Q: What sequence folds into this?
C-alpha cells in the first residue's frame, strides 16, 4: 500500500489533471437512470394515458394521493383483461402499468418526482381497496416448460431442415449449444444471446469471442 495522500495533495493532483473552479458546465437537475428504448416505449404508453386523463381533470397532479388513486382506477378500467372470463384485469397487470407510469413520469420530470411513499401507498391501494371495489382478478398464467419433444423438434430443424448457409462451420454447433444453455440454465441468457427486448443494445456474445464446451 502506498503512502496515504493528504487532501491538499489530492487537490493539487486534481488541478494538475485539469480540474478548475468553473462549474458552469454542470446544473442542479436530477439525473434519471438510462433505460432501453423498448422499456421507454412501455413507459410512454402509460404517460399517454395520463395525458388523456388530464383532458378531463386538467388540474390533476400525481403528487396527491387522491389523484393517484383515481388515476389507478381509471387505468384499471381501461385495461381489457385476458385471463379473467369477465374481462377484468389482474391485480398484477394494474400494478405493472402503474409502475410504468411512475417510471415514465420520473424520467420526464426529474425535478418533480413521484415519491416512493406515494408509489408504495398506491401499490397497497391496488392490492387492497381497488381490488375489492372493481373485482380485479388474481388469475395467473400457467407456467409452461420446454418439453423433450419441443427440444428434439428444434434440433431436427437445425440439423436436418435448416438450409441456411452459415459463414462459420462451427455456427450450427454453437447454436445447438446455446439452445441447450437456454434449456438447462436459470441464468439471464439475454447476456449470452441478444434478446428481443435488448435488440441493438450490444448485449450478448459474438461468435468469434465465444468458447463453449458441450459435453
A:
Amino acid at each position: 500500500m502506498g503512502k496515504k495522500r493528504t487532501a491538499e495533495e489530492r487537490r493539487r493532483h486534481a488541478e494538475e489533471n485539469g480540474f478548475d473552479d468553473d462549474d458552469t458546465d454542470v446544473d442542479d437537475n436530477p439525473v434519471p437512470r438510462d433505460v432501453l428504448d423498448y422499456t421507454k416505449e412501455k413507459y410512454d404508453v402509460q404517460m399517454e394515458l395520463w395525458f388523456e386523463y388530464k383532458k378531463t381533470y386538467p388540474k390533476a397532479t400525481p403528487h396527491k394521493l387522491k389523484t393517484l388513486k383515481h388515476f389507478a382506477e381509471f387505468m384499471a378500467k381501461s385495461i381489457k383483461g385476458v385471463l379473467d372470463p369477465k374481462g377484468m384485469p389482474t391485480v398484477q397487470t394494474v400494478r405493472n402499468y402503474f409502475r410504468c407510469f411512475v417510471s415514465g413520469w420520473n424520467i420526464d420530470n426529474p425535478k418533480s418526482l413521484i415519491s416512493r411513499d406515494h408509489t408504495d401507498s398506491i401499490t397497497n391501494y391496488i392490492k387492497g381497496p381497488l381490488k375489492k371495489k372493481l373485482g380485479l382478478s388474481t388469475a395467473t398464467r400457467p407456467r409452461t416448460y420446454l418439453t423433450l419433444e419441443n427440444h428434439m423438434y428444434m434440433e431436427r430443424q437445425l440439423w436436418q431442415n435448416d438450409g441456411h448457409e452459415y459463414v462459420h462451420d462451427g455456427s450450427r454447433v454453437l447454436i445447438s449449444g446455446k439452445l441447450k444453455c437456454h434449456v438447462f440454465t436459470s441464468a439471464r441468457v439475454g447476456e449470452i444471446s441478444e434478446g428481443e427486448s435488448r435488440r441493438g443494445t450490444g448485449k450478448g456474445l459474438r461468435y468469434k469471442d465465444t468458447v463453449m464446451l458441450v459435453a
The mean pLDDT is 86.
